[in-house]
Amino acid sequence: MFDFLVSADLLVDDLEGAVANLQSRLGFSEAKAQWYAGGEGHGFEVVFLRTHRRLQGSPTRLEVMAARSVSPDVPPPRTLPHMPGLRLAQEAAPVRTHGTVFAVTDIESAIERVRAGGFRHWLDASNDMVPHHRLWVGVSEEEKDRWIPGDDGGLLIELVETRSIPGVMESALEPPPPLDAPAGAMTRIAARRWLIPDVEESSARLHATFDCSISPVVETAGSARVASIRCAHPRSALVDLVQPAPGTVEAELVAAHGPLPWTIVIEVDDLDAKAADLGARGTGWDRVVDDLLGVDVLRVEPTQTEGVPFAFVEAA
């Protein structure tokens, strides 16, 4: 059902500082003006950073968002009035989210499905100012800022219309555009991992709500239990549902906070060159065998990256 994961998100307080830090620490390029949206009065401000200069190469972007004030002078269709409340509700969480955003071709069917199932949702309907629907699952029309994990599989899902991001699915079967960048360059966001209490339950709830494509549950060498949401676009990031192994730090986090957005996995064209690049930036990293992938990755200490773990893996 899902065409591609639109973004791996970070909900931060200092947008400008977070963006500058991610650019300096990890090597994201300068953001163009058109990659920003919102601002004071809109309830949110956001910037979409890219690993590949074109969305056809990496449909999934890094979305950095901050809550902003809400003004009655800004037309409601251009605001996200629930964002300040949603941010406040996650005060204790080590990593925060505004939502897991998927693009879908047939959003009308998704709307009918959540309505027929009685699933907790909010339809931010299209209008003259915003010509595309947005459908949120995990919050409701009456309580937009109260996220209750369940029908959303614990992911706080937002669906947008694929046609609102033109050119991505139309080029899905074509080779990725040339990168034209030095060795070690980031090529695409490969996965966004979520820590969840029960992978079977999350998978079942996601199937019921969206009928999306999810891989069978497997157990890793480290005793985590994992299933992955797969999208139609071959270069979309996966969403990995990770039930941490008992006794781990991650298991303690889930027990304390419930579902949490966690690691962002980024492919690079040369892992050794990326290691050198990170070192030149003063960014600390460990080379480890990733428990889910079973291959070497460069794992960056999350205290350097807004509390969010990042891992770099060499493209296959």
Question: Which structural traits does this protein have?
Answer:
316 residues, nine-stranded mixed β-sheet, eight-stranded mixed β-sheet, 2,3-Dihydroxybiphenyl 1,2-Dioxygenase, domain 1, alpha+beta
Explain what the structure shows.
- The chain contains 6 helices and 17 strands.
- Strands 9, 10, 11, 12, 13, 14, 15, 16 and 17 form a 9-stranded mixed β-sheet that branches.
- The chain is globular, with a radius of gyration of 19 Å.
- The mean pLDDT is 97.
Short description:
This protein is α+β, with helices and mostly antiparallel strands and 316 residues long.
Q: What is the fold's blueprint, element by element?
A:
Layout: E1 4-12, H1 15-26, E2 36-39, E3 42-49, E4 61-70, H2 83-89, E5 100-104, H3 107-117, E6 121-124, E7 134-137, E8 157-161, E9 186-195, H4 199-210, E10 213-214, E11 218-219, E12 225-230, E13 238-243, H5 249-257, E14 260-268, H6 271-280, E15 285-289, E16 296-300, E17 310-314
Parallel strand pairs: 1-4, 5-8, 9-13, 14-17
Antiparallel strand pairs: 1-5, 2-3, 3-4, 6-7, 7-8, 9-14, 10-12, 11-12, 12-13, 15-16, 16-17
Per the principal axes of the C-alpha atoms, what is the gross shape?
globular
Q: From the coordinates shown, what is the CATH architecture of the largest domain?
A: Roll
- The CATH class of the largest domain turns out to be Alpha Beta
When the domains are counted, the total is 2
Number of strands: 17
The SSE string, one letter per element, is EHEEEHEHEEEEHEEEEHEHEEE
